[in-house]
User: What shape does this take?
Amino acid sequence: MQLQNRKILIGITGSIAAYKTILLVRLLVKAGAEVRVVMTAAARDFVSPLVLSTLSKNKVESDLFEGDAWANHVMLGRWAELFVIAPLTCNTLSKMVHGQCDNLLMAVYFSATCPVLVCPAMDEDMWHHKITLRNVNSLKADGVHFMPVGNGELGSGLFGEGRMAEPEEIFQTVYGLVKYPEKPLKGKRVLVTAGPTFEPIDPVRFIGNHSSGKMGIALAAEFAYAGAEVKLVLGPSNANFPGGMEVIRVQTAQQMYDAVLESFAESDIAVFSAAVADYRPADSRPSKIKKVAGVPQEPIVLAENPDILKTCGKMKKMGQLVVGFALETDNEAVNAQQKLRDKQADLIVLNSLKDEGAGFGVDTNKVTIFDKNGQETALPLLSKHETAVRIVNAIINFGS
Ligand code: PMT
Assistant: This one.
């Protein structure tokens, strides 16, 4: 699980956007995180503490004192690896800037030793007010991380900027901050290919393969979380991809080749996880081939597609790292190592269709990473996310 046993403290302030924080808590708990929640009194008017305590499996804290007992804000702030204030109102933003410690949430903020991520939510006029801008800049200068606000329908019924970020986006940022606090790939440009290619026979039919794009998308996401500037060249895939990266959509191997060559020279790391068709119909028909009586006698003549990885392996300059994939069914290790040499890659990631749970479509993979120095790392069957984590770490270690 992505956030297994990681300790996340959620602060909720009084905004209608608080309903989204319920979903955020659910996502965090599902990812294995330990979640605790602090709410202001105003927040309790918008969402029920009972919902949050049920989802987080922890008592929700709101008051500095309960009867004759004192809530230990110092320990809450020290317990957490990350404190996420979502939503952040204009009022709480101002208190954070001016040191106004008049509730438990503020006491936790002022005693927290961990990084803080805030997710503003306010009406557009408040968000654009010069005092808000000044306060935001002041908190950013203090090292507080900000989620960008969204544009759309606001609590007032008006449309504009100021919507709290969506729970999935906040979750991704939380993951990146917790997993890679040092951002080891900051300043690096990473190019990733993913998904299948579709080679048209006519406007209706194509030659393709079963790649879903999941492996490559997981890799691109992991690079982005580690701080890299990521370009994902993605073939026809229905898989969801997160924000925080540039995505270039392509259909054919030739289009993928063109898109990759446009960016390869400026990339520090290039990972080729796409399942690219080696051949395409030599003359794709402009109109649908009509059904005729009997099997068509005219064969589909194939032409060779450019080998994107091989081209980049040849072009590679000092300091650039090229990583290929090898999808095999027989004689796997030998074939993968042959591809590593032929395509002049630095590393190659082998997956075999003989391994149950590996390869196309599924959410898991089982890979072995070979590097050009003869090092071999066999990984067990893991989720594609965890496989991506291991591959990114192998790349970081190889490059350093
Ligand atoms: O997308 P998923 O459903 O998550 O599945 C993931 C995956 C199985 C597609 C992925 O893990 C994988 O193995 N990708 C490589 C598939 C492949 O085409 O392997 P290959 O052995 O045929 O190609 C070797 C390498 O050359 C690959 O890096 C490939 O991207 C590259 N290549 C191949 C042909 C070509 N014309 N251009 C290329 O760049």
